[in-house]
Prior knowledge:
The structure is a single chain. By secondary structure, the chain is an alpha+beta fold. The protein has five helices and six strands; from the N terminus they run αααββαββαββ. Strands 1-2-4-5-6-3 form a six-stranded antiparallel beta sheet. The protein is globular. The protein starts with a helix and ends in a 7-residue tail after the last strand. This is DUF4442 domain-containing protein. It comes from Marinobacter aromaticivorans. Pfam families: DUF4442 (PF14539).
Amino acid sequence: MALIDSIIGVTGQWISNTNPAATLAQPVEWLKKTGGYAAVNRIIGLSIPFAPRNRFSVEEVRPGYVRARIQLKGNKNHFGSLYAGAYFLVAEIPGGVLTLFDLGPAYTPILKEMTLQFLQPANTDVTVEFSLSPENVTAIRADADATGRAKFTLEGELRDMHGNHVATSIAHYRVRKKGFQTAA
């Protein structure tokens, strides 16, 4: 795990120094941005092979923010809309991404509970965005450093490619500090 932790740490530093608004008009910045996102998706694929097989991808990540997508292709249910498990996948993994890249590899994210409220079928790809304020990140880190663990909740609006709000997710995470020792 030391190698993957190092890769996560380096990738986190890389993406925190990229410009998420970079376009092809700034080719070096655009390459840094897209290369960073490709590295994030590769790390996810190595850690959770189920994710890329089901066409999950992180589209944007920066300090305190992540946007992810799940493709409809390959994830249709029996009546042609997005399968319920695909909603869960796109709503769950970004919490881990935020944790790993905002807190660093010394903190392990664990999903404790998640609910999904389905509002309407999605007949396109679906995206979700999550954010944590700098104050929330600081509080999570401080709690985990002091007690070995911290809790946080992420609520997301899952949207289809037309901007329709198709589902709402509420995910309760726990973060564990690796190597934490209680004071004797």
